[in-house]
Amino acid sequence: MASTFKIVPSSGNLSAERFKVYTQRNLHKLPHISSLSKQQQFEIQVVANVLPFRVNQYVAENLIDWGRVPDDPMFRLVFPQREMLEENDYGIMSGALKKRKSKPELEKQARIIRAKLNPNPADQMELNLAELDGKTLEGVQHKYPETVLFFPARGQVCHSYCTFCFRWPQFVGDRALRFASTSPSTLTRYLIQQPQVSDVLITGGDPMVMQTHHLNDCIQPLLSPELEHIQTIRIGTKSLSFWPHRYVNDVDALDLLALLEKCVRAGKHVAIMAHYNHWRELETPIAQEAIRRVRQTGAVIRAQGPLLRKINDDPRVWSRLWEEQARLGIIPYYMFVERDTGAQAYFEVPLARSWEIYRDAIQRVSGLGRTARGPSMSTSPGKIEIQGITEIQGEKVFVLRFIQGRNPDWVQRPFFAQYDAEATWLNQLKPAFGKKEFFFEKEFNKLAQRPIRKS
What is the DSSP string of 363-384? Predict the structure, then answer.
C-alpha cells in the first residue's frame, strides 16, 4: 500500500538497524554472551528448552546493562533464569541435555513440565471462546460483552520474548495451546452479529511483527459501515520498547503510520496498548521518536505491565516509569499482578506488598500519572483491583473491586477478603467477616463448573 503519511522532522541519531534475533539455537553468536559463565549459558539453554526465549540485537545492545548481569532488570526480563523452573524440573531437563537426548525426547519432557505451569490461565480455553454458526472460532476470544480479542496467525511471535509473559504458550510450538486465526473474514461475520461489541483488541504475540499489508487485512474490515458499532481498535504490542524501528526505519514504517492515521480519520479511537516494565525502555532516542510518530497519527498510547519481583518491585521504578510516560504523551493504564502461569513463582509479589508499591508510587507522581489502575489481577471472573488494606470492626482486610467482570453487574461493587500477608492470587484469599463465599462466587462457580478458591 502506498504511504500517505507525512513525517514532522525530528533531530537525533535515528540510524536504521537490520533486525537480528537470537534464540537458544544461535545464542552463542550473541556478542555479549561471553560475559556470562559457561554455567550461566547452560542454565539459559536448559530453561529455554521449556519456556520460550528470543532476544534481538536492539534489546541486547540498548536496553541491557551487561556490567550488571545477571542482576540487570532488563536482562532478567528477556533471558531465562534457572529459578524460573522448579528445582526438580530443572534437574530433569538439565540431565536430558547433558545426556544429549534427541530433540523429540527433549520436547516430550518439556511438554510434561509445561503442563504443570497452567499454560492458559483464567479459563481462556474453556470460557472465553466465541462461536459462529455453531462452531468455535479459532483465534478469537470474547470474555467481556463489549470487547473481543483477535489473534492473527501472522502475529503470534514477538520481537523479543519476556520471561514473565502469560502468553508463553503461543510461542512453544504446541498447536493445542495456541490461539491463532488465519481468517479475518470470520471475525467480521462474528462482529456483525454482536452489536454490543465496541472494542476489538488485536493481540498475540505481537501484531506489530506483521507486515503492514497483513495488519491492514485485519483492520480494514473494522472500518466498514456494517461495523459502525466498533468504536475502538486496540493493538497490543511491545514493539515500542523491543523494536521501535518498526515505526521509524522499517521498510513499511510509513505505511504502518498511514494505516493508524486512516483508522483515526475514519472516526475510530485507535489505542496502542503498549507494554512497558521499566523506565529504561523509554530512554533511547529511537524509542522516543517511535512514540512521537505514533502520536502524530492521532492514535493514543496506553501503557500497562505487571509488577515483577527482581525487575520492578520498587515504587521508585514505577513512579519514574509513569512520570516519563506522561512526559512523552503516553497514558499510564494498568499495573497488573503477575499472572498465575509460567514462571509465576519467580516473579510473584504478595498482594499486600503489591498494593504498598502501587500506593507509594502513585503518591510520588502528579495527577497525569495517576491514571494507572492497580494492582489488578486478571482472573477468570474478571479484572479485580486491590483498592487498599484497612481494618473494619477489628478485622484487617483487603478492599477489592471488579474493574471488569464476566457479569457486568459485578463491576465497581466493593468486597472484602481476609488479610493474608503471603497471598499472591485470588484463589488464595478468603472472604472476610465470616462469610463463606465472595458475592460473585456462586454465579461464577455455576458458569465454570468448578470452585474458584483452593479448599
Answer: HTS-GGGTT-EEEEEE-SSEEE
The radius of gyration computed from the CA coordinates of the chain, to the nearest angstrom, equals 22
Rounded CA-CA distance 44/146 in Å is 41
The phi, psi pair for 32, rounded to 5°, reads -85, -5
- Short-list 231, 253, 248, CA closest to 300: 231
pLDDT of 6 strictly over 90: no
163, HSE (Cβ side, Cα atoms, 13 Å):
27
pLDDT digit string (tens) for 209-225?
999 999 999 999 999 99
pLDDT digits (tens, 9 = 90+) for 319-341: 999 999 999 999 999 999 999 99
Report whether 219 contacts 260 (CB < 8 A). no
* C-alpha to C-alpha distance for 168 and 435, rounded to whole angstroms: 37
Read off the C-alpha cell for 279.
523506565
Asked if residues 219 and 299 have their Cβ atoms less than 8 Å apart, the reply is no
C-beta neighbour count of 356 within 10 angstroms? 15
Task: Report in angstroms the alpha-carbon separations of 136 from 125, 127, 129, 186, 227.
Answer: 11, 12, 7, 11, 21
3-state secondary structure of 453: coil
Distance CA 274, CA 450 (A): 34
| Measured distance CA(214)–CA(152) in Å, rounded | 9
C-alpha cell at 80: 531465562
Is 60 in contact with 242 (CB distance < 8 Å)?
Answer: no
Q: Count Cβ atoms below 10 Å from residue 282 Cβ, excluding itself.
A: 20
Q: Which of 424, 336, 405 is nearest to 415 (CA)?
A: 405
Taking 3-state DSSP, the helix, strand and coil percentages for the chain, each rounded to the nearest 5, stand at 40, 20, 40
In what helix (H) or strand (E) does residue 56 lie, and over which residues does it extend? Answer: strand 55-56
The structural domains of the chain, ordered by start, are 21-115 (no CATH), 124-343 (3.20.20.70)
Look at residues 36, 28, 27 and name the one whose alpha carbon lies nearest to residue 54. 27
Of 321, 283, 275, the C-alpha closest to 302 is 275
Question: How many C-beta atoms surround the C-beta of residue 135 within 10 A?
Answer: 9
Is 252 in contact with 40 (CB distance < 8 Å)?
no
- List all residues 6 or more positions away from 346 whose beta carbon is below 8 Å from its beta carbon: 81, 83, 84, 163, 164, 309, 310
pTM, two decimal places: 0.94
Side-chain half-sphere of 334: how many Cα atoms within 13 Å?
Answer: 17
pLDDT at 455 over 70: no
Coil, strand, or helix at residue 408? helix
Burial 306-335 (b: 16+ CB within 10 A, else e): bbbbebbbebebbbbbbbbbbeeebbbbbb
